Every structure is written in structure tokens, then in C-alpha cells.
Amino acid sequence: MHSMSLKLFVDFNDVKSRHTTPGQVSFGAGESPVRLSFGDQGRRSCRIIAHASERDGGAGAGAEAGGAESQSQQNKSSFFARSQTYALMKQQMELAAKSENFEEAARLRDSLKSFEEEEPVLRLRGLMREAIANEKFEDAARYRDQIKEIAPHYLLKCSSDATTLGIRVQVRSVYIEGRSQPLRGQYFFAYRIRITNNSNRPVQLLKRHWIITNANEKSEDVWGIGVIGEQPVILPNNSFEYSSACPLTTPSGRMEGDFEMKHIDKVESKTFNVAVAPFALSTFGDATDSI
Questions:
Q1: Where is the ApaG domain (predicted)?
Q2: What is the pLDDT of residues 227-268, one digit of tens each?
Q3: What is the separation of C-alpha 13 from the centre of its chain, rounded to a whole number of angstroms?
């Protein structure tokens, strides 16, 4: 089994940088709109050495029955640590580029590339895709199961698409390095939602319900009125889009939920729930195109 040993060296200096997101983009934590702008931040020099090694994952004849479970927990903990390191490297590369410290940005870019080549989950994902392309489905299933053991969240894409009673909900999430602090266990994810009314009746979005689960399987239910302060009416063959955000205490997790809606073309119409299919929150991201 591949495991990765990581060494992290972080130096701080007083060089400052400022960066903001484009003016037309805003996200809202907890569905409350807030513009993503970042104040002065000290440029940090982050030196990370990552290397993979082969280890015998087999148990001896006298191993206890709980050995496999213990190994699984170690794998998950190791993935958690690697995800933290990966998030920190990406953040430092962004800060170095914004500070015009291009040599450091290039070094971090190369470190990230090496990290991605040696990271077990990313390597297994590549092998799984290659196996699928070659129609070696048994191999693909084996790689999938190995990923599931190390990082079950990673099999979930950073996007989802579901339709309920003609109402289609598409979601895409993205990790925001500039608002995250990996060393403090703070990760910030933005998500974009498009709601399309493919039915022949107008609907109004009344309430939202989110189930947010971190990498430790700790879940939180969040309820609210409307979205970003609105209860939009969506006419047939029209869409409503908005952006919001979610902080997380782990480098990965997932979100799912539903919107409570009602048809407004008839008096006393009953409300109904429109599903938001699960989607990942991941510092690694995936190859899914934006909606």
C-alpha cells in the first residue's frame, strides 16, 4: 500500500499583498451575500517535501481481528493530513503569485505537481479512469473500493444535478484558498446554484434546508427562509441562479438538502420539496466543468 510522508516548513516575512475577487462575483456565508475581498496578508514561504513509500499492508497470521479497521482509520487520518498540506501549498502558491514572488510560486507549482503525482487518492483516480477507458471494469471497481477506504468523500463530485416535479437543481462547488486557513483548520467553499423550472407552472422558493457533513462524518442541519434574502418566483422555462458559501473544519465534506416550494398559479397550493443532490466540498476538486 502506498503511504505518503510529509514534512512541512513554513517561514513568514513581512512582505504584504492585496488581492480581491472580480467585482461582479459575490458569495454569502449562510446564504447571506458577502463580497469576497481579502485584506493585506503577509507573504509566506512554505517549503513542503512529500514522498511516497511502499508499505506492506498485509496482516500476519497472529494479527487481531481489529487490525483492518485500525488500518482503515490510519488511512483516513493520513488522507486528512495530506489534504491539509495540499490546501496549504495551494494557498501559499496563490499568495506568492499575488506578491509577484514568481520564483517561490514556480517552486510551489512544481511541488504541487509532484504531490499530485504521488498522492494515493489522485493516483488511484487516474488508474480508475484509465481502467474505465480500457473497459477493465473489474480493475476500476477495485480502484474505486481503495479510494472509498481512504477517502469516501472523494468519490462524490463537486457538482450535482437533480430534478423533482420538473424543477431542476444544478450545483457546483469550489474551494477558495484566499478565505481559508488550513493551519487553523478553516476551509472555505463557495457554491453556485442554478434552479430551472422545466414544468408548465410558476413556482416560488420559500425555504431551504441543508445537511452539511465534514470528513469526520459530523453533520449539521441548517434551515432558512428563501435564499440570499430572497424568495424568488421562477416562471416556466426560466432559471434562477445564486452563489453562496460554506465554511468547513475539514479539507473535505459534502452538502445536500432541499428547497421547499409551492405552485403560485392556484390558491392554497400545497408546498413540496425539491431535492438538492449530494455534492462534495473538496480542496482537491474534480474535473467537472462549471455549470
A1: 161-288
A2: 999 999 999 999 999 999 999 999 889 999 999 999 999 988
A3: 30
